[in-house]
Design brief:
Layout lengths: L4 E5 L5 E6 L4 H13 L11 E2 L5 E2 L4 E2 L6 E2 L8 E7 L4 H9 L1 H8 L3 E7 L8 H8 L6 E4 L5 H5 L8 E5 L5 E6 L4 H10 L4
Parallel strand pairs: 3-4, 7-8, 8-9
Antiparallel strand pairs: 1-2, 5-6, 7-10, 10-11
Length: 196
């Protein structure tokens, strides 16, 4: 019943300090320096890394099409992250990336990151050219899986695409959808995440 209260969160949105009553610059600086100097994410509060519901999502460096960069889900901590596994000859994969996922970005903007992960196999097509033709201006990060479809398999994939994995702001898996999904289904999942 007393004010003020100051709550300090780390880069993952995990509470690291709650100060009841007045605080000072020095007290806040000490708390912040403790987080930054130790480069700690307070992952002890997070679940173990894995590929199932409730796990901290496996963190794998994925090559980004059209660049020499890689990304991993930890790059997007602080946002809801949607991983969508697809491949070029999967018609329903392409369709949902053209129709459903753009609506999610329009609805949630920068609060949601969409990372598409194409099969490791290149088949007989130029995947970057296909992406440019099929998804012009799409606000997604287009990546390629690692050899052997390893990331796809780590997160529950076996033989069928698409698969969509939704992570909360800490990178914890909150939903895995096998088969095509819709804007409404994704919206319902995102809205069920605290501060989604």
């Amino acid at each position: 019943q007393a004010w003020p209260i100051t709550v300090v969160l780390d880069q993952n949105g995990v509470i690291v300090s709650t100060i009841y009553g007045s605080t000072t610059y020095d007290e806040l600086k000490e708390t912040i320096d403790g987080i930054l100097d130790n480069n700690t994410n307070h992952n002890s509060n997070l679940p173990a890394e894995g590929g199932k519901l409730g796990d901290l999502c496996h963190d794998v460096e994925l090559p980004v099409y059209g660049s020499d960069h890689t990304v991993s889900v930890s790059d997007f901590r602080g946002k809801v992250t949607i991983l969508n596994f697809w491949y070029i000859y999967c018609g329903s994969c392409v369709k949902e990336l053209q129709t459903e996922f753009p609506q999610i970005k329009e609805e949630y903007g920068d609060r949601v990151e969409i990372v598409t992960v194409h099969s490791y196999e290149e088949y007989d097509r130029d995947i970057p050219a296909f992406i440019e033709e099929s998804f012009p201006g799409a606000p997604f990060t287009f990546c390629r899986d690692i050899e052997g479809e390893a990331y796809f398999r780590m997160l529950g994939g076996s033989q069928a695409w698409p698969i969509t994995v939704v992570l909360d702001r800490n990178g914890v898996i909150v939903s895995t959808l096998y088969g095509s999904t819709t804007y409404e289904e994704l919206k319902q999942i995102i809205n069920s995440i605290p501060n989604g």
